[in-house]
Amino acid sequence: MEFLRRALNPWGENVPIGVAWDLIWAAVIIGAVFVVVHALLVPKKLPAGEIDEGEAKGLPDRIQRHKPGARGFHWTMSATMFALLITAFFPVIGIQFPWVTIHWIAGVLLILTVLYHIYHVFAKQDVRNMWIGGRDVKEGALGLQAALRRPVKRPRAGKYPVDQKMFHHAATLATLGAVVTGVLMMFRVDNFLWARNEYMFSDATWGWIYVIHGISGIALIFLVIAHVYFAIRPEKRWMTWSMINGWITRDRYLENHDPERWSVPEAGGAGDVEGSAAGGGTGQPALSDKA
Amino acid sequence: MAVMRDMIPPFELYQPTEVEDAVRLIRQHGDKGWVLAGGLDTFDWFKDRIKRPEAVIDLVGVEELRGISAGADGGLEIGAMTSLTDVAENADVMGRYPLLAEAAGLVATPQIRNQGTLGGNIVQDTRCWYYRSGWPCYRAGGNVCYAATSQSMNREHCIMGASRCVAVSPSDTAPALVALDAEMVVAGTSGERTFAAADFFIGPDIDIERMTVLKPGDLLARIVLPAPWEGARWYFEKIRDRKSWDFSLVSVASSLRVEGGMIQDARIVVNSVAPYPVRLRAVESAIRGRAPSEDTGQMAGEIAVEGARTLRHNDYKVALMRNLVKRSIRDAA
Asked: Is domain B12-61 classified as CATH 3.30.43.10?
C-alpha cells in the first residue's frame, strides 16, 4: 500500500501531491477494529464507585460540567467536522456532489469555532484542566486495569478523565494540522476572502501541505469513529448527556471525579483546581467553578 | 509540452461485436481499460504516452452502436458509433434536426468527421494543453491548475462554471444535443440508464477528473432525440481561430418555438465557456413572450454573461458569448 501520491511536475521534479486515498479505508478499518476489540474486552457497565457521604455534604443534586458556551462550541465543531469529513471523503469514495464550496465554508466555520474555543479556554476556563500530569498517568493505568476487570479500585479523575484529555490533544493536533493547511489551500480555490494564487509556494511545498491536510483528515476519521463510539457506550453516556444538558448528578460527580482535583463552589471550593497554584490538588478550596 | 512520439505503448486489443461483450470487457478492465471509438481523441493520448491503458476495447465492430433509426414518440435514435459525417448528412437529421446536422458538420475536417463518431465527439476529453501535456493538474489527479494563474496561457479556457479547473468542454455536438433536449443512453453491466443531455455533462465541482457522468465500466450506447418542436427555429454558430479546422472558442446552439411572432419556448446553450455546455435558463425565461428581435437578443446577451469571470487572456469570450447569444435569438431561422 502506498502512503503518498506523487507526480512529475512540469520541471521534471518528482513531488508529492497528496496522501494515498487507500488510507481512508485504513483509518475506517483501524477504527472498526478498535471499536470491536474494545467492545469485546471492556465491560459496558463498570461497578459503581464508592460514594463518601462526607464529600456529598453540601453538594447540589446537579453539578454543572459544561457551560453553554462550551457545549455550543462542541456541537458547532461536531457539525462542521462532519460536514468537512463528508465533503472531503465522500467524493473520493464515489459519492459525488458539488463539495468544494461547502467544504471551505465549513472549514471557515471550524476556524471560527476553534478561535472561540481558544478565547474561551484562556479567558473563561483554566487551560491547565487539560494538562496531563503524573496523577493522570497513574489514573490512566488504574483505569485500564479496572476496565480489564483487574481487582483495583476505580480511580477518580479531575474535571476531565485522562482518556478524554488524550483524545482532546490528538483531536487538537489533527484539527490544527487540517486548519492551518486548509487556510493555505484556500489560496488554490476561488473564494471571497482573497485572490487565488497557485504559485505562492513551490510544487513540493504545496504537495506537503496537501499531504499534511490529508493525514490530518484521515486521522480525524479514526478519532471521530472512536469519539462517537465512546459517546454511545453505556458507561459513558452520562458524559454525553452532560454535553447536551450541561450537568451531571452529584453521585456521578463523586463516583468519577476527585473533589480535590475538581471542586465545585457549592462544596465550598473552586472549580478547576487541578494543577492550579491555589488548589494544586491539595484540597485547598478555590473560589469559583470555571467549568 | 509533451513530445509526440511515434510508438504507442503496447496494450491488449479487444474487438467485441456485441454491446454486452463490450460492456463486460469495459467493466472487467475498469480504469486500466480504454474505450476506443473513432480514435481521434485516443491516439493523441497514446502517442504522448500520457494514457497507458493495459487494454483497449475497440467498438468499431459493434454494429448495434451504429446507425440512425426512428425512435419512439416521433423522435430519432442515433448510435454512439455513428460517424459525424453520417449524422451531418443524414436526411432525417438534416430535415428534422438541422441544428445537430449543422453542429456535426462543423466538427474539424471532412476526414476527421468520416472517422470520428458522435459518441466520441460527445465524451471527448478537454483540450486544455496543460492537462494534455501530462502535468499533474487537478484534472489529472494532482493539486494545481496550471491554466488559472496570472502567468498562464488561458485564452481558450472558461469564463464560468470553474471550480479549481478552468478547462472547457470542446464538443461541438454537445450544445446542440442539450438544446434539442436529447437523452443519452448509457449501457452498463446492470443495464441501461438514461440521462438528459443537460445532466450528462458534469462540472469539476462534482468530479474534477471527468467531464461526463460516464464512469469506468460505462458505455455511451446511443443518443435519443425527442420529436422536434413544431415550427421550431434554430441557430448554431461556432467561432474558432481557423475556419478550416479548429476547436470552438465559443459556440452557441438555440432552439426556439415561435408562435404569432412571439417566443413561446426556448432552449439556448453555449459551449466552450465552461467545463460543460451551459444551458442559459435565465435567458430562456427572460425571452419567453417576446419577439425574437434585436432588442430581445441584446437583452439576452447581457443576461447570458452575468457572473462571467475571466482569466488573464480570455476576456474576449464575454463579448463573443454576448453577441452569439444575441444572434442565436435574432437570427434563428
From this structure: yes
